[in-house]
Amino acid sequence: MEIGKVIDEREMLETLRIASKNGKKVAIIGTGNHSKKVADLIISTARMSDFTIRDSEVIAQAGCPISKIREEAMSMDLLFPSLYDGTVGGLLATNEAYPISTAYGTPYSFTQWTRIVTNSGVLKWKGLIGSKGLLGGFTEASMRLYPRPSRVETFTTKLEEKDLIQVYNKVINLNPLAFLIEYDNGFTIHVSLTEGKIDGMDSYEGVPLVEESDKGSYMVKVDDISSFIELVNKVRPIYAYYIQGVKWSKVYTSEESELDGWEHFNSTEVPKVVWKLKTILDHWNTLV
Question: Is 180 helix (H, G, I), strand (E, B) or coil?
Fold first, then answer.
């Protein structure tokens, strides 16, 4: 297995096309800390790590660690709107949602534009966010930054199903930074506020975290809290969670057949639309 650290789009495109011509499988990574891909050739963007912050925007190359952007943004009293701890390229490739996606959206939402090298050429198209490296390698992106809250307090409590909708309707009007519902043989809600409080709930500083392991989990399309409750009642998963504002819930179950009738895909894979685009952008099937 070869590893090549590219320095720009031209080198990435040239490397990708040569590999394709020679019938080699290619994986594109950042630092590799989050990737378990196996291929004939690994293309790393680790040397493409520059970024600049101007006003409420960061323009960053794919190999830039999110931690560096987050640190500089904080020094300017700004917030990078994701808890992801890898590189910019990994953030765009996974489009991972976190509880604060309630307020700021997924990476697709707060990304203004991005550039990606595909076998068909270089595209400036954010529609490929979330394709997990199967269509190409991200090289650069512009993302929004937000004013950093001076205080974040999360209120949490266990609820019976019959009370869930009523409490939801009450707290959603408080404009929460994060709104998370966990199912683990019962429902627990976590509501993060930058001001105000919720009586009758326990509280802690900061925002809630969720299970990040993909093993045994599926992304399931849900329209709202009601459809999440319906899903849980049907499947009775080992664990599941719903983030307000995100249309996909993460569900841990040992039997995929239990999700029949629900639009879903394995958390380690990608939505069906990505495979359709692959027949156009990588019909050589070079990228893995």
Answer: strand
Tokens of 119: 């076998």
Strands 248-252 and 239-243: antiparallel
pTM over 0.85: yes
Tell me the pLDDT tens digit for each residue of 9-63: 999 999 999 999 999 999 999 987 777 889 999 999 999 999 999 999 999 999 9
Backbone angles phi, psi at 18, to 5 degrees: -65, -45
Q: Which residue ranges form the domains of the chain, and what is each CATH number?
A: 2-148 (3.30.465.10), 153-206+215-266 (no CATH)
**Residues 89 and 27: beta-carbon distance below 8 Å:** no
Give DSSP secondary structure letters for 215-279: TTEEEEE-SSHHHHHHHHHHH--SEEEEETT-SEEEEE-S-GGGGTTS-EEETTS--HHHHHHHH
